[in-house]
Amino acid sequence: MMGGMRPERPLDLLALDLPAGEPWGYAYAQALLKAPWAWRALRPTPGVLDLIGRSLEELYLDLLRRREEEPLGPLGERPPHPAEEGALEALLARDPRALVEVLQAHGPWPYALYRAFRFDGEVRPVLRPKLPPENALVGYEAQRKALEENVRRFLEGRPALHTLLYGARGTGKSTLAKGLLRLPEAHMVEVEPSALPALDRLLEELGRLPKRFILFLDDLSLDPESEAFHHLKALLEGSLQGTPENVLLLATTNRRHLVRALGKNPLPGEDPQAWDALQDTLALAERFGLVLTFPPFDRALYLEAVAHHLGRPLSREEEEGALRFALARGFSGRAAEQFARTLR
After folding, report:
1. 141-294: what fold?
2. Contact present, 310 and 297 (Cβ < 8 Å)
3. How far is CA 249 from CA 113, 197, 222, 272, 334, in A?
4. Please, what is the angle between helix 46-69 and helix 23-33, to 10°?
5. Neighbours of 13 (CB within 10 A)
6. CA 69 → CA 3, 64, 65, 203, distances in Å?
């Protein structure tokens, strides 16, 4: 009934992200979260409950046999997730309604167990996301405060605004966005640019889940000639599907994406298509209810950032070295962090 999802031999367990504890039980609990009926269990019919009950009976007997014939010590180190514990309890009790409650509270795999994901046409969990250090940014405290306040409103179920972070390269827009995973109850899906055509399918899936998701689009192109532009425009301007209530869009774009259009501001009387392209770009940017700008670093802020990363004031010699380092890179938070590493 569930062949192919549960491990067939002990070595199969090594491919799983198991918590600390008896591995067979948690491996079978994960198999339940991946079951073919897991999504249907979010709104179960009597027939779905029957299928879940049969699966529980089959897996329960198989689990008892595995534990007796092939006992194993713990393979994982992390603590078990509440979804894994709940699924295992439902399996041992052979209680389909208890398992439905677990799935309705946490969602199916992989959403049940993880908070960060990458979407490249398929949703892939990021098992251990690498978060930037806290207070890693210098000079953008107002932007950070505004962004976090908006996201907190969203996570609390209050009205919030789709957000665009706009500014020069190296100013920390992506760092600030990824740091949102520190907020309690935050879940993030980073969308690869090549996967934008499949965004409708992702949104349909996320909209069925009990959690709230930040949909992160990094280095977004606002070029009206790009395919990504038209997919995002349809989403923001009101396609039939629209954005689910539990999804908040967060995009970053570099200054060059807007300068490409704004720097070629057409003159009166020029080809109407040139004006249309400019207006499309501006209209899409305005569809984000919250636009936070990240101006480029100047000399003073760059040196302040270097000192911040070192945790101490700079000597005159170090200041001179930092300025030489920036000659080929420009003043930015990224360059400041890179130079600080050379002094450690």
Report:
1. Rossmann fold (3.40.50)
2. no
3. 22, 16, 15, 31, 25
4. 160
5. 17
6. 19, 9, 6, 44
Lowest-pLDDT choice from 17-21, 129-133, 155-159: 129-133
Q: What residue type is 97 in one-letter code?
A: R
State the DSSP string of 89-150.
HHHHHT-HHHHHHHHHHH-STTTTT-SEEEESSSEEE-SS--PPPTT--SS-HHHHHHHHHH
Give me the residue label for tokens 């208890």.
98
Tell me how far CA of residue 30 lies from CA of 14, 165, 167, 273, 301, in angstroms.
14, 37, 42, 54, 49
**pTM for this model (two decimals):** 0.83
pLDDT above 90 (res 289): no
- Concatenated DSSP letters of 258-273: HHHHHTT-PPTTS-HH
**Rounded to whole angstroms, how far apart are CA atoms 116 and 111?**
9
Provide the residue ranges of all domains of the chain, joining segments of one domain with +: 10-113, 141-294, 299-342
Rounded Cα distance, 45 and 323, in Å: 67
